[in-house]
Design goal:
Length: 370
């Protein structure tokens, strides 16, 4: 995977926000607010209706209440570029600039609201611990959200020093590469410093968000990239390799070698949020096969001329991949249906049709044996 197409550089400028990702495009976006006398800044942390913002004059604390507070998709979040009042007590964030990308997951609430984890991200770094058994389905879930966000996913296999030998490590990397087509997969050891130079070079090209479960080694990795112990680290449990939430808020930090890193709390639940495009990107080989099916609306279950099932029979397509693809598409459809009345009606009609077909099949079977 090539990293040659990086976000536009603004390194020739002496603007103090350049280390935090400021560039010519952001400057143009902010121009109308500059004429109003507002300050430009980037949100580095949000906490209970307030946020820490880095501005040309330094760090300040601002209230976010002026920005719509009751829509979880419109609240200020870490990574936003904002227009802030230059004075006042309290100071207020007046607005945030249009987001280039946003990493969104569904909440655990029954209302199925979306939650923005980070904004204006160029790379979504999925940290996966090699200290425990690989969960490729979870990797695919993270990747679906990453692709949907508009960021470039990168999978980082942490704790590589705990893998017994190079051959085993190579096989583990290959397994993840199968689950992450066209996505860079890097193995690193934060304790030994192995692989960090390659990762740091990648992340120097823009803003990255660090994602993964508790115990994946995110905070240790962040400290290694920063060159100092900024993030607290707790040991993982020996029983299951899981850790405690050492990071409780999303924090944006400038990396010493260039680029910006947003560290996030460990995610126990990673629900999809209208991520059909992301799912299709993760399973691009299945999408390519589906284009060859005889019927354009093939469900890849029992239809004649199904290229997906044919690839399954020959072993070209692993059954685990197809099962994971189906699972994520079903989940995403349920999420979207909660806010889309037309789709809900279509799903109900589909259920009724399948129920009628099943009932007819049973009656025919009874008639045959009667």
């Amino acid at each position: 995977m090539s990293f040659s197409s990086l976000p536009g550089s603004f390194s020739s400028s002496s603007h103090p926000l350049v280390p935090y990702g400021w560039d010519a495009d952001w400057e143009a976006e902010f121009a109308p607010y500059d004429s109003e006398g507002l300050l430009a800044g980037r949100v580095i942390r949000v906490d209970r209706g307030q946020c820490d913002v880095v501005t040309p004059g330094g760090m300040l604390r601002a209230d976010t209440a002026f920005v719509t507070p009751h829509d979880p998709m419109r609240v200020v979040c870490t990574g936003d570029w904002v227009a802030v009042e230059p004075a006042g007590d309290p100071r207020y964030v007046r607005t945030y600039l249009p987001r280039r990308s946003s990493f969104v997951r569904s909440t655990s609430s029954k209302r199925s609201e979306g939650q923005i984890l980070a904004a204006n991200v160029d790379y979504a770094v999925v940290a996966v611990s090699l200290a425990v058994e690989l969960d490729l389905g979870r990797v695919e879930r993270f990747l679906a959200l990453a692709w949907e966000s508009g960021a470039q996913p990168v999978v980082v296999l942490t704790k590589a020093d705990l893998v017994p030998d190079a051959t085993t490590l190579s096989y583990l990397v290959q397994d993840v590469e199968t689950a992450a087509p066209v996505v860079p997969v890097l193995s690193v050891s934060s304790n030994l410093g192995e692989g960090l130079d390659v990762l740091a070079a990648v992340l120097s090209g823009g803003t990255s968000v660090l994602l993964g479960q508790s115990g994946a080694g995110k905070s240790t990795l962040a400290n290694a990239l920063l060159g100092e112990d900024v993030m607290k680290v707790h040991a993982t449990r020996d029983v299951d390799g899981k850790g405690r939430h050492t990071t409780t808020t999303r924090n944006l930090l400038a990396l010493p070698g260039g680029g910006v890193l947003i560290d996030t709390p460990g995610l126990r639940g990673v629900g999809l949020w209208d991520a059909e495009t992301g799912v299709n990107q993760v399973f691009s080989e299945i999408e390519a096969l589906a284009a060859k099916c005889r019927f354009h609306d093939c469900a890849h279950t029992s239809e004649p001329g199904c290229a997906v099932l044919a690839a399954l029979d020959t072993g070209e397509l692993p059954e685990r991949r197809l099962d994971s693809y189906r699972k994520l598409l079903r989940e995403n459809q349920r999420i979207v249906a909660k806010t889309d009345a037309r789709l809900r009606a279509e799903i109900r009609r589909d259920w009724k049709r399948k129920g009628a077909e099943g009932k007819a099949a049973m009656e025919a079977k009874r008639g045959h044996w009667g």
